[in-house]
Amino acid sequence: GAVVSQHPSRVICKSGTSVKIECRSLDFQATTMFWYRQFPKQSLMLMATSNEGSKATYEQGVEKDKFLINHASLTLSTLTVTSAHPEDSSFYICSVPRGSSYNEQFFGPGTRLTVL
Amino acid sequence: GDSVTQMEGPVTLSEEAFLTINCTYTATGYPSLFWYVQYPGEGLQLLLKATKADDKGSNKGFEATYRKETTSFHLEKGSVQVSDSAVYFCALSGGGFKTIFGAGTRLFVKA
User: Fold this and answer.
1) Helices H, strands E: what count in chain B?
2) According to the model, what pLDDT value does residue B96 have?
3) Which of A33, A46, B72, B108 has the most other CB atoms within 10 Å of its CB?
């Protein structure tokens, strides 16, 4: 069964509103989770690393005030897209590193965000 | 910087055909290489991996060999099934946790 869940799976919102996406590690505790963004027919791009109990680490070019990440517990990380615009429409995927090596990851099923 | 290039899809095959999906990479040092698969409506799953040159990863009839001399990690399967229809991602990790993905190749297998 799934070890990482995301909620919601799809969301449609109006421009200017904020949207929260949850990522849950179901089978084990995760001090670190990752957030990716995937445009149609393109690669997954790492947006940020979510760290339990501390601030997230953002990749270059990702606006931290736009994409708020909160890692409130060892099983939950949330990504909030603030003041969403149509260009934020995308597929957002979280992952949890696997084992002692962070090379392998368990992925969530993804959240399709559409901003009208 | 590090990058992964894989063949564009979609790839359409008949059942029992031979599959090759090409993947090449650019990286400093000695990365680990992966193939992930995404079935319709599901998240990505690790299909196979190789951590050093000449390693062969294999799983579910799929295999890929880490070729340092050609910087390649091509995915192969001798006889595909309809259930193999999915999107396949080649990826590398150069250490730590940062994983770089190829664009993905969609495979359609016809009965």
Assistant:
1) 0, 12
2) 64
3) A33
